[in-house]
Amino acid sequence: MFVSESVKARCMSPFHDRLTALRAELARRGLDGFVVPLTDEHMSEYVGAYAQRLSWLTGFGGSAGSAVVLADSAAIFTDGRYTLQVREQVSSDDWSYVPVPQESVAGWLAVHAPNGGRIGYDPWLHTRAWVADTVQALAERDATLAPVADNPIDAIWTDRPRPSDAPLAVHTNEHAGASSAEKRAAIADWLAEKRADAVVLSALDSIAWALNIRGADVARTPVALSFAVVGADGTTDLFVEPEKVDDAVRQHLGNAVRLHPKGALVDHLATLSGKRVVADPERAVAAIFDAIEAGGGTVLTLRDPVVLAKAIKNPAEVAGHRAASLRDGAALTRFLRWVEMECPKGGQTELSAAAKLLEFREQTGLLRDTSFDTISATGAHGASPHYHVTEESSASIEPGQLFLIDSGGQYLDGTTDVTRVIPIGAPTSEMRDRFTRVLKGHIAIDTAIFPDGTMGAQIDAFARRPLWEAGLDFAHGTGHGIGSFLSVHEGPQRIAAPNYPGGASLEPLRAGMMLSNEPGYYKAGEYGIRIENLVLIEPREIAGGDPDRAMLGFATLTFAPIERTLVDADLLTQAERAWLDAYHARVLELIGPELDEADREWLRAKCAPIG
After folding, report:
1. Domain Peptidase M24 C-terminal spans what residues (predicted)?
2. Are 434 and 529 in contact (CB under 8 A)?
3. Distance (Å, rounded) from C-alpha 139 to C-alpha 515?
4. Which of 313, 359, 385, 580 has the greatest number of beta carbons closer than 10 A?
């Protein structure tokens, strides 16, 4: 056990009381149940403190999940990334654990909802497709899905934080690579192509990218709580609290962007009577669809046009990311040396290690924030892919363990995300075998060449084959997109199996997209392994290939040493050894000049040929 039973009991008791209070509130409202997703009114992956309803109710600290509360039972739904974490943080006395995608909230309700019952939901926290699926499922029980005017959790969460009032900031054209006017003109052209009058932008990173603004309303993600409606002429109505906008931002936005309080969105949508209005079925909540239709507008269910434009990085964004990666890689390299020198001595913990890495990044003088809460995990904690270290859970880093560090930085010119594993003392032969198989999968992705239009689902197995050959696998995607001083997880591209919990990875891969390359292996109760670099999709010329078939490949963006003592060279092919040696030669070439002499000498040894 990582957390003593007494500590666990203390942590669980307030959550039992909250569950009891919610049931009383539901009964007062005539509801037989309520669905609690982990999202906000923008369908965000990472949400502000004010929207952390699932965590407040259950104690679950992961970044994806949902729950259903009925009068006599309750269930929490998480995917394979959180199998261990949810059991550590959420009491089995009050909650049953339901795995996804094997089961869904709708499917569970079709079995467990009371006959003829009324199940409540907040239409500002669910998509219209989810509503339709759940209505259909509840029909099996002759039950109904009932929208609530206000969230019942908010009625009992007496000390609920207020939404952030952090000011907006201008993201300069130097970093953005294109002006807001140019981006809005491109959206207007897209609207003309679709014969639409306007598009509602509800995803926070879409708004930030389209208007070249950033914010600080969500921890680790530089976005501002807002909505935007872009018209066919490129003019835009931005819905954001007035106190968040200063004169510099007003001047940047110009007269073509009209400002309104955030709460005025619904009234504005009512003015679009007779208009054809685009709303993204994955990113716009059901309440937005309802408001457009109630006002007499016609909804076109199309993907937000910013999503793909944002994913394909322009030259300024690519150059910025390369610069951010080098400074971040140098900070990480200093940290890796510190771990090797200090952690075997004892006295270091997961929290102290995370703090030390933050210190190295802050020494760059350019860090704006971390890009997510650092996953600092030693020993068995590493077996939980999205483990979140707390004061209560922080474990000592001890000899004989593998220490996994997954972290990233937010810089004005780029967002980083990188994972490395360091043995504390001598690793076992099994650890080396598993690490090498993960490395082989990482190399297979990095060296993949594929036709333009290939989907991430088609190459995901490349990363898994070396593990499959040993009867092993990992329960998360292999790669996700990444923003440019924006979200560390960005769609629509990903590398994952078709049945991945986040949805099928069927988006065609295109030149200019950035992705993570992060296969892993996790042995419950013992250790976790993940090797993560970021890569850029680039065109590839293939000698003798079909001249009419465009080919693509990956260019590595992340440079930091991969622990050589964990590599079993006998498991590598000659080509894989050559890849590792060439990668380390680039690490030494690019990162070495950023280090002092002692760190550079250490790096030189770490980057020696594998032999």
Report:
1. 551-610
2. yes
3. 41
4. 385
Please state the domain count of the chain. Answer: 3
Are both 203 and 102 inside the same structural domain?
no
Same structural domain, 351 and 493? yes
What is the DSSP code (8-state) at residue 413?
T
- Structure tokens, 120: 């409540």
Tell me: do 585 and 492 sit in the same domain.
yes
Q: Residue 173: which residues within 8 A CB-CB, separation 6 or more?
A: 179, 212
Domain boundary among 156, 181, 213: 156
Q: 474 with 509: CB under 8 angstroms?
A: no
Query: Which tokens belong to 487?
Result: 């979200």
With vertex at residue 540, the alpha carbon angle to CA 584 and CA 558, rounded to the nearest 5 degrees, is 30
d(CA 128, CA 130): 5
Residues 258-315 have pLDDT tens digits of 999 999 999 999 999 999 999 999 999 999 999 999 999 999 999 999 999 999 999 9
Boundary of a domain, candidates 114, 129, 156: 156
Residue 55 CA to residue 70 CA, distance in Å, equals: 18
134-147 pLDDT, tens digit each = 999 999 999 999 99
Q: Are 39 and 125 in contact (CB under 8 A)?
A: yes
d(CA 426, CA 487): 37
Residue 406 is part of a domain; what is its CATH number?
A: 3.90.230.10
Q: What is the DSSP secondary structure assignment for residue 49, as one 8-state letter?
A: G
Residue 141: name the closest of 119, 104, 111 by CA. Answer: 111
Q: Give the HSE-up count for residue 608: Cα atoms under 13 Å, Cβ half-sphere.
A: 7
Residues 17 and 73 in one domain: yes
- What are the tokens at 345? 């001595």
d(CA 35, CA 151): 10
Q: Is the pTM of this model over 0.70?
A: yes
Judgement on whether residues 181 and 318 belong to the same structural domain of the protein: no
